[in-house]
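Here is a typical sample entry:
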Amino acid sequence: MTRIRFQQSLEDLKEQLLVMAGLAEQAIQRAIEAYRTRDLSICDLVSRSEIAINRLERDIDQAALDLLAMEQPMAIDLRFILSVIKINADLERVGDSAKAISDRVRSMDQMAVVDLPVDIPKMASLAADMVRKCLQSFIEKDAAMARSVLAMDDAVDLMNKAAYKALTKVMAEQSHIAPQALNALMISRALERVADHATNIAEDVIFWVQGTDVRHHKSVTGGRDPHALA
């Protein structure tokens, strides 16, 4: 494969990943809209999206592995392909989380709508913003934007912990609305996982662009890691 053809293959791989990213982002938005409106027809759209996302995950993995096997890329090209494989897996799990939320909405279909001490739409908005930003950082090769996503994860974690505390109290003290509280709790957990996957994607963008591994690092907003890859 010539260098020009190889670069075109990398661009094709990137385009496939962006299609998948768009589907995953849309699935989360639809799942939350389904929760807000209790519209089961939107749940059907989420289910169909998951099928498409799963198919794309397999195609992207195969294309990436083929490039690794045939071209044995080095430096930033190698980091790009490795990052695509990891981002691909996280996007598939975002789709899984959207499906999990829509499944909870289905289970709530016959339940009364009640006020609960948790702001699911606010948490969803923050998690969705993380997904949008990490994907934008990938499109623009912007490590600084990716680092800003990492800083947002703590806020979602805190909201999830607060939701757990408030909703378990509701389940203990108001048994008549315990099923609604349990579903809200599971949705909160799913959104926390979406935020985690967005964080993983942001870390992979940083690795691709800068060769820096920021996984498990407490401080990620400073300068370049002195142990970064060349």
User: Anything to note?
Assistant: The first helix runs from residue 3 to 37. The domain at 3-210 is CATH 1.20.58.220 (Methane Monooxygenase Hydroxylase; Chain G, domain 1).
